[in-house]
Design goal:
This is DUF2334 domain-containing protein. Pfam families: DUF2334. InterPro entries: DUF2334, Glyco_hydro/deAcase_b/a-brl. This protein is an alpha/beta fold. It has a domain at 3-159 and 225-229: TIM Barrel, CATH 3.20.20. The chain has helices at 6-19, 42-53, 77-83, 95-112, 129-136, 170-186, 199-203, 205-220, 228-233; strands at residues 25-28, 57-60, 118-119, 141-144, 147-150, 156-159, 162-164, 194-196. The strands form three sheets. It has a four-stranded mixed sheet. A hairpin with a 2-residue loop joins strand 4 (141-144) and strand 5. Helix 4 runs parallel beside helix 5 (129-136). The protein is globular.
Length: 234
Amino acid sequence: MHPGALREVVAIGERLDQLGVEKRSLLVIPCFHHRETLLDCPELCRWLSLEQARGREIVLHGYYHDEQDVETRATEVFWRRVYTAGEAEFLRLPRKVMVERLWKGKELFALLGWDLWGFVAPAWLFSVDLLEVLPLLGFRYTTRLTGIIVLGEKRRHIPSQSLCWSSRSLWRRVVSWGWNRWLARCVRGADPVRIAIHPGDFREKTLWKEIDRVLGNLLALGYQSSSYRDYVAS
């Protein structure tokens, strides 16, 4: 989430409250696409602080969420231009720059009084260097599309395919709707099941209706909500 998505983020939160999804992780981008920072939107910062007070987790989600000043290799075209629309910020970031951005994110969270356990790279794409750097900076976990990575002396991978929709274009909406409808059936009985919701999903009513349906079905099956922090700590 970022300042430009405040309206959608609040609306999604209200619906999750109605469904009884009490625990959740809120992924926050400090300076979305090199534009306004979180500090430029005190309303969002206040809302997030209230969410933390209610037991929700705030997670660092990249820093800029774009690939500005990063050269694209031919072997990366699919991941950078098709799978994600130029937002694989941490896919091949120089280690020094990676550390600088993570540290700036930590400092911002500390300034705002937010606890910080985890980091999630945009589109779950990152180089292996990230797994070495994160624990040195105090991060407890990160995630990939296919699982949760618990960091520490003994790194541990918890398999968990995330359901994630794409609202950027008609073909993405159609494909992600069909893929996730099939995937939602496949993950029944799995522990944990991860649901990724983006602000743009709320603007596309067909997608949002489907996400709402999937959440309702999982809750009806007896699933209980959890944040990454609480799950990793359990």
